Amino acid sequence: TTLPGSRFPLEGASDADIGANAQLSYTLSPSEHFTLDVKSFDENRKSLFLVLAKSLDRETIPVHRLVLTASDGGRPSLSGTMELVISVLDVNDNAPEFNQSLYKVQLPESAAVGTLVARVNATDPDEGSNKEFSYSILSSVPVAKRDLFTIDPKTGEIKLTSTLDFEDVRLHELQIEATDKGTPPLSGHCSVVLEVTDINDNAPIFRVDEEALSIAELSVPGSRFPLEGASDADIGANAQLSYTLSPSEYFSLDHQGSNDQSASLGLILTKSLDRETIPVHRLVLTASDGGRPSLSGTMELVISVLDANDNAPQFNQTVYKVKVLEGSELGTLLVTLSATDPDEGINSDITY
To answer: Do the beta carbons of residue 247 and residue 229 sit within 8 Å?
Structure first.
């Protein structure tokens, strides 16, 4: 950090002759960083100074080797030389520098605790304590997930300290700092972007465990009744859903469109209903995703068949034979008739 123009005294040469044979002149080998300044007090007394002409950079040229030549005024001229070995002392003028400003990493959300996320690497061209540095995690996005990661201050290895969750955070960004031990300390920075990839760790989920439907008994086969499908927190094939129905004698499924979660799901009546035979149908609707292995979720469909007045009252006998004494009083009970109607509600109320 020595400033240009700084002067450093040099010891001059001596010559055993006298007169012009002892009058000395000095020259310095070519250098863009140094020049020579000679001050003459008289013909035999001169002061030499090495002058810094240009700022030094130890990391570019740590040692300058110059040749100082003294020549006398004799004929022929005689000369002597001395080598100047100038060592540039280091100052902390270089911050640690990473070999990449951005590290991009992908890890599945199933990565175990202790998994190596990335190994960052920085270098410092200074020397001694000025080149010694340590790594640290300066910040993270999201901030609340900072504790998911740890970094080795010496090696720069970043590892997981907890499990990832794609459904919670899909992208983590860490700001890494390398700080040297110089005075004052200098720091370099880089970013690590971790993309969490999805695995099939979420089964399809229905909003309710049981859905109740009411369908008219006289509904025509082919009638469609909308159903609410399942949802899956994964993405891609892991969230593409297909459906099955069991048992399926009276009903089938209509899954319009692709297998994504926005597709329309409906229940199709395939066979005429008869409430008097089966008043309630209990079905199991299963949603399966496209992951490997596939995960599934279920919901029970409870279908109540709404009665239609499709049954006439029926007497328990078609003919009642009764014998009555001719002298029977008025109001005498002759016979009790009985009819039944398998319908329900007002459809089964009978008047005679």
So the answer is: no
